[in-house]
């Protein structure tokens, strides 16, 4: 259940409902990455971020189409972090 928590986050103009949904999506992505690291990558310490962010498309079906696009964007950005450190 989503509650209306007020007019918004101070200084952002973003409603609390949108802000909470955003945080829920980020938490879900972190959980998905943790599962990827534990189950698929077997907790390997030296995993590349690109490997961590290589989530099978099947796992994205739990999200709405709009959220799938956001998750893909997050994962793409995470995968690029390794590249930016080596260039």
Describe the structure.
The chain has 87 residues and is mainly alpha-helical. It has one domain. The chain has helices at 16-40, 49-52, 65-86. It is globular, with a radius of gyration of 16 Å. Residues 1-9 have low confidence and may be disordered.
Q: What topology emerges from the helices and strands here?
A:
Elements: H1 16-40, H2 49-52, H3 65-86
Q: How large is the radius of gyration?
A: 16 Å
Query: What number of domains?
Result: 1
The rounded distance between the terminal residues' Cα atoms is 45 Å
Strand content: under 5%
Order of helices and strands: HHH
**Largest sheet, strands/sense/barrel:** none
Q: Would you identify the regions where 5 or more consecutive residues have pLDDT less than 50?
A: 1-9
- Going by helix content, strand content and strand pairing, the class is mainly alpha
Alpha plus pi helix count: 3
* Strands, count: 0
Shape category:
globular
């Amino acid at each position: 259940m989503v509650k209306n928590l007020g007019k918004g986050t101070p200084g952002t103009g973003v409603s609390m409902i949108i802000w909470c949904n955003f945080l829920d999506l980020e938490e879900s992505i972190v959980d998905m990455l943790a599962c990827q690291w534990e189950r698929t990558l077997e907790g390997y310490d030296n995993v590349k971020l690109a490997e961590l962010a290589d989530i099978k498309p099947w796992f994205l079906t739990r999200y709405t189409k709009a959220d799938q696009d956001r998750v893909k964007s997050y994962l793409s950005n995470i995968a690029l972090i390794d590249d930016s450190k080596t260039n």
